[in-house]
Design the sequence.
């Protein structure tokens, strides 16, 4: 006898549990990246930097496992879940964020091991940029946690994400110029430029993820 498919509401709540499980890996991964960035910007090449890179890689793999479980669940519930495409885009963007955090971590670990460090001016520019991205991740986390209970607040937080992205773009342009005018080694320049571009992509992906949350929240709004 065929198994009875869950109702739309049951499927949504189960999927939300999966998304929370997946996003926890993202918050953990980004927390490790924050610590790693601060150590690197202080020109510290120690055992902790390597440990953090390994933790981020481990968490990224766990996140990938959760993503595969989510896709398996989506295939099984079929049409019982409304707005399935919106959920899939949300999951894929969360996973992309995890991948980019891992990519930044990989480059930082190489730079730290080779002692390719930024100048104080460049390091300060990265700190200012990271402060904004930290705020974006905090808004994104709040929006996701409030998705089951306060759709209108989710919409407000997603709008704030877009405002912060504009500030990130401005800081990104400023830091690009500071980096070009700095006297860092060529090797350090290449790594720092790649990290800078990937940090901007993190901000862009955070906004895209917010857009996914906005669509889902609009369906749930009273």
Sequence:
């Amino acid at each position: 006898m065929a198994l009875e498919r869950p109702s739309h509401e049951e499927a949504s709540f189960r999927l939300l549990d999966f998304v929370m499980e997946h996003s926890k890996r993202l918050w953990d991964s980004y927390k490790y990246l924050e610590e790693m960035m601060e150590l690197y910007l202080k020109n510290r090449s120690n055992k902790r930097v390597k440990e953090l890179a390994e933790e981020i890689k481990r968490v990224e793999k766990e996140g990938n496992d959760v993503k595969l479980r989510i896709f398996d669940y989506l295939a099984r519930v079929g049409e019982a879940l409304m707005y399935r495409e919106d959920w899939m885009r949300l999951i894929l963007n969360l996973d992309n964020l995890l991948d980019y955090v891992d990519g930044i971590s990989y480059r930082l670990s190489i730079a730290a091991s080779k002692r390719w460090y930024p100048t104080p001016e460049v390091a300060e520019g990265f700190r200012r940029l990271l402060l904004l991205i930290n705020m974006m991740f905090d808004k994104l986390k709040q929006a996701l946690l409030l998705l089951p209970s306060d759709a209108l607040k989710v919409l407000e937080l997603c709008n704030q994400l877009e405002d912060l992205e504009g500030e990130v773009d401005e800081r990104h342009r400023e830091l690009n110029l500071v980096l070009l005018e700095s006297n860092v080694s060529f090797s350090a320049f290449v790594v720092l430029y790649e990290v800078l571009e990937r940090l901007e992509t993190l901000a862009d992906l955070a906004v895209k993820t917010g857009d996914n949350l906005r669509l889902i929240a609009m369906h749930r709004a009273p």
Summary: The two ends are 38 Å apart (CA to CA).
